[in-house]
Amino acid sequence: MGLLADSPIPSGFTGTRLGVCNLCEAICGLRVTFTDGEVTGIRGNPDDPLSRGHVCPKGVALADVHADPDRLRRPVRRIGSGPQARWEEMTWEEALDLVADRLAAASTEHGRDAVGVYLGNPNVHSLGSATHGSAFVRSLRTRNRFSASSVDQVPHQFLAWQMFGHQLMLPVPDIDRTDLFLVFGANPMASNGSIMTVPDFPTRVRELHARGGRMVVVDPRRTETAKVADEHLFVRPGSDAALLLAMVHVLLREDLVTAPAYVDHLDALPGLVADFTPELAERVSGVPAADVERLARELAAAERAAVYGRLGVSTHGFGSICQWAVTLLNVLTGNLDREGGVMFPEPAIDTVGRRIVSPGHHDRWRSRVRDLPEFAGELPVSVLREEIETPGEGQIKALVTIAGNPVLSTPDGRALARALDSLDFMVAIDLYLNETTRHADVVLPVTTALERDQYDLVFHGLAIRNTARFTPALLPKEPGTRHDWEVFGALATRLAARLGPRAPWRARLQQRVRMAASPRLLLPLLLRGNRYGLTWRALRRRPEGVDLGPLRPCLPERLQTEDKRIDLTPRLVVDDIARLRASLDTGPTTQPDELLLIGRRHSRDCNSWLHNTARLTRGRPRHQLLAHPEDLRARGISDGDVVTVTSRVGSVDVECAASEDVMPGVVSLPHGYGHALPGTRLTHAATVPGVSINDLTDPERLDVSGNAALNGTPVRLSPAPAAPAG
Ligand SMILES: Nc1nc2c(c(=O)[nH]1)N[C@H]1C(S)=C(S)[C@@H](COP(=O)(O)OP(=O)(O)OC[C@H]3O[C@@H](n4cnc5c(=O)[nH]c(N)nc54)[C@H](O)[C@@H]3O)O[C@H]1N2
Ligand SMILES: Nc1nc2c(c(=O)[nH]1)N[C@H]1C(S)=C(S)[C@@H](COP(=O)(O)OP(=O)(O)OC[C@H]3O[C@@H](n4cnc5c(=O)[nH]c(N)nc54)[C@H](O)[C@@H]3O)O[C@H]1N2
Ligand code: SF4
Ligand SMILES: [Mo]
C-alpha cells in the first residue's frame, strides 16, 4: 500500500499515508487517511519511535486548516484603510516586486534599520523556514529583528549560552527514566511539553508512577498536570526565583552537593544565595519553608531526578535567575547529564555542534529608544511599538511579519496594533487575515503543513529520545500557491538586486543556489557526517522515524564552552540578583486590592491561530477569567458575571468563572483570544468569545534577558458596567 510513498498523493487517491503534525513541539507522527483525494481521518502512528501513536485534537485539525475557505491562497493587497478596507488579489510576480520595492525603498531612504522584522512561532515548526527563512531575514540587513522568543524562552537560551556555550544547548528531562520529576511553571498535559519534545506525556506520567516515581508541580494554578501529579504546591506568580534559590541554599547549607568535576565557581555560590533562606521563600512565594527544605532534600536523596522550569518561570520578571537556579539544582545534585536526570539530546543533524545555529551573543547593539541590549541578534519584542512610533534616525518605517500574530501575542498588543497603522509599509507572510495581518499592505500566503516536506531541525534537538524522521509532503501544492521557502528565496533575491551587492560574488552565487534549492535537496548535505552514520537513503526508507536510542551522557565533551567547563556563576545573571533583592523589599503589587494575572493553555488551543475551526472550539467555553471565589466575593462579583480587568496598560471586559484551582490573589486568562476585530477574515473565530490577555500585559515588565514578564501582571477587578457585545 501507499504508506511509504515519497511523493504527494495522486488525485483521487484513497488509502493511508504517513504524515506529521507540526503544530506543537511534540511533533507527533500521523497516519492520514484519504478518500478520493480528501483527508478523511488523522490518527497517531503507533510505529513512530518517538510519538508511539499519540495524537491530540489539534493534529486532526491540520486538515481543517488546509480546507479552510478563509485561508489565503493568493497574495492580497489592502485597498483603503479602517473599516472600509477591502482586499484585492495580486499575481505573485506583482506582489513580490511590490514588497521588494517598498522594503528596499524604506532601507535606502531611511537607513537599513528602518525595516523591522518579526518572526512568529510557526517558523520553528517549518523546515522551509529553518533552511531559507534566516537568509531572507539577513537580506533585510536590519538590526531591528524581533521574534516570539522574547515572549517565551529567551531566558533558557540566555542561560545556555552563558553556561553551556550555545544558546540551543538546552538540557531536557529524561522523563522515561527519572524517579522524581519536579515541574515549575509548565503544564505539559495541555501543552504537550516545551523545550522537552515529549509526545504522549500522559502515558509517560503513568509509566513514571508505575515504576514508583513521583511528579511534583509548583504552579499558581492547580493545572491538568498538577491534577495528575503526586503533589502540587501553589506559588505566588513571579516569586519562583526566591523559592528556587532557597532550594539551592538548602542543598549548600546541608552539604547535599555532588557536583561534577567540570564546573567552576562552586565556592562562590554559598555567598550568593546566603540570604535566600526557606523563610524568605515562604514570605515571598507562599510555599511553606518546611516544604522548601523537604523538596531540596528529596531532590538530593533521589537516585535520579529532573528539575524542569518552563514558560511560567521564564515569562517572568526574573526568568533568567529562575533558569539559572533550575540548572544549579540539577548540577548540584548530580542530575545534569545523568540518565534519569536532565540530558542533552544528540540529534542526527546537530545544529549546535556544527554551528548551523550561532552560539549566541549579547549587547552587540541596543534598541534605539529604551537602550536594551540585543541577544542572539534579536531585540525584545516588548520594544517593537516604541521603535515604530518614536521619530528619529533608525525608526522602523516598514515591517515584515512572518508567521506571527504579535497583536495578540505580545504585551500591550492593542497599542502595537495602532502603531502598525502608522507604518509606511507592512507585509505579512501568513495564512490568514487576522488581528495582525489586517494591518498589512500586502499579505503573502504560503502552503500548509500537509503540502510541505518536514524534518524537525529544531525539535529532534530538544526531544526526550534521539530519533530522526523525514516526512514527505502528503498533498500536492495547489496550483498558484507557493511554499514558504520559495517566498523567502524570491524575496531575498529581489532584495539583493535592489539593495546592491554586499558579499563577494562567489558567496552571492552560492547563496542564490542555496535559496533556489528545496529543503529536501539540502537535507542530505545537513545529514553528512552525522554521529549515527544515518544516510539520507535510510532516513527516507523509514518515514515513521528512525530510532537512535535513549539520551546518553555526553559531558564535558559536548560542552560548547571554550574550556569545556561550566561556569556556575554566569555574570549577567548573577548581576541581576541585586534587582531581585530590591524587588523583594517592595513586593510584586503596589496596591492592596491588586491581583496577579497569569496565562493558561488548553489542549484544543494553539496560541492565537487555530480558532477558525469548529472542531477545536466547540464544547464548554474556556475563555473566562478564572478567579478564586474569595477574591470574587470580596469584590461583590458572582461566578459568571462580566468583570472589568484593569492593568497599567489597559482594560478588558470578560466573563469570570469562580475556581478553587487558582490560588487566592491570582487570576488567569488564556492567551490567543480576542478575534472579532474589523478587517479580519476569520468567520468562525470571530464568533468565539474572549479577550486578549495581552491587552493587559505590560511591555515595561522585563527579565534581564529582555524576555517579557507576561505572568504576574498586577491587575484590578471590578464588576463591569454593562454586558459586552457578542
Ligand atoms: N500573555 C501571554 N502571551 C503569550 C504567551 C503566553 O503564555 N501568555 N505565550 C507566548 C508564546 S510561548 C508564543 S510562542 C507566542 C506566539 O506568538 P506568535 O507566533 O506571534 O503567534 P501565533 O498565535 O503562534 O501566530 C502564528 C501565526 O502564523 C500563521 N501561520 C500558521 N502556520 C503558518 C505557516 O506555516 N506559515 C506562515 N507563514 N504562517 C503561518 C498563523 O496564521 C498566525 O498568524 O505567544 C506568546 N504570547
Ligand atoms: N494546547 C496547546 N499546546 C501548546 C501551545 C498552545 O497554545 N496550546 N503552545 C505551545 C507553545 S508556543 C509553548 S511555548 C508551550 C508552552 O508550554 P508550557 O511551558 O507547558 O506552558 P503553559 O501551558 O503556558 O504552562 C505554564 C504554566 O506556568 C504557570 N505559571 C504562570 N506563572 C507562574 C509563576 O510565576 N510560577 C510558576 N511556578 N508557574 C507559573 C501557569 O499557571 C501554567 O500552568 O506550549 C506549546 N504547546
Ligand atoms: S500533541 Fe502537538 S504534535 Fe501531537 S498531534 Fe497534538 S498538536 Fe500535533
Ligand atoms: Mo512558545
From TrEMBL:
It comes from the Bacteria. GO terms for molecular function: iron-sulfur cluster binding; metal ion binding; molybdopterin cofactor binding; oxidoreductase activity. The keyword Metal-binding applies. Gene3D superfamilies: 2.40.40.20, 3.40.50.740, ADC-like domains, Dimethylsulfoxide Reductase, domain 2. Residues 14-70 form the 4Fe-4S Mo/W bis-MGD-type domain. SUPFAM superfamilies: ADC-like, Formate dehydrogenase/DMSO reductase, domains 1-3. Belongs to the prokaryotic molybdopterin-containing oxidoreductase family. This is Anaerobic selenocysteine-containing dehydrogenase. It comes from Nocardioides marinus.
